[in-house]
Amino acid sequence: MYKIGLQLYSIKEETERDFFGALKKVADIGYDGVEFAGYFNTPALDLKNALGQYGLDAAGSHIGIDLLTNELPSVIEYSKTIEDPFIICPWLPENMRDSKESCKRTAQLLTDIGRECNKNGIQFGYHNHDFEFRTIGDNLIFDLLFENSDPEAVKIELDTFWVEYTGYKSVDIIDKYGSRCICLHIKDMKSWEERVNTEVGCGVMDFKSIIAAGKKYGVKWYTVEQEEFERPLFESVEISCKNLKQLLA
């Protein structure tokens, strides 16, 4: 029922060097699917065939706001071809979230994008970093974006590391927004003092509680992401996969 994905940004050096070879290694490690951070000019049908060959599901694609705004039909068509259930906006430039008014305008833009995705059978979501947990007046930027967007059109891919990095609790955010959360980024923190990434299960994040909250609201995909490494890339993502399987059991 629950699936483990890998955000391919975690192994970007490998995907840039040998995209399909990296996909095969991810499959061999035991991941159920991959979340894309670029397609490296790969034709959609070729990628679909490779995913099928390696037994991987598409678990989302991070697509920049410029592409989403200017080339949405082609983005949707690519996602449909590779049978990707999610299109995710991973970042917003500062001028799109530096005031209540800009956040509300951005929320409407995200709503428009999400409604178009929904028409094509794809869920659209937004992925947070830390800046969404800064305040404008009495409001979190996170809340301004999601409270002013259509809950059916704009879902949440919650990056649990960045939530905890800011001092907030992922479980509280999941409980507040419930089934609007469609995917959790499972990214561990080495220590509360250093606040850097480490392999899942090797840090201080309370993933038992976070995953229990995700399960309560029907989250299906739990996606590993790591940006800082002390071990070889594939060794790290294998440790994370093994530990996350135990946490989900």
Name of the CATH first level: Alpha Beta
Shape: globular
Termini separation comes to 11 Å
Q: In the CATH scheme, what's the topology name?
A: TIM Barrel
User: What proportion strand?
Assistant: 15-25%
Major pleated sheet: 8 strands, parallel, barrel
Q: Write the CATH homologous superfamily.
A: Divalent-metal-dependent TIM barrel enzymes
How many helices? 11
Q: pLDDT average, as an integer? A: 98
| Global structural class | alpha/beta
Low-confidence stretches: none
Task: Compute the CA-based radius of gyration.
Answer: 17 Å
Order of helices and strands: EHHEHEHHEHEEEHEHHEEEHEH
GO molecular function, one term: isomerase activity
InterPro entries: IolE/XylAMocC-like (IPR050312), Xyl_isomerase-like_sf (IPR036237), Xyl_isomerase-like_TIM-brl (IPR013022)
Keywords: Isomerase
Domain Xylose isomerase-like TIM barrel: 23-230
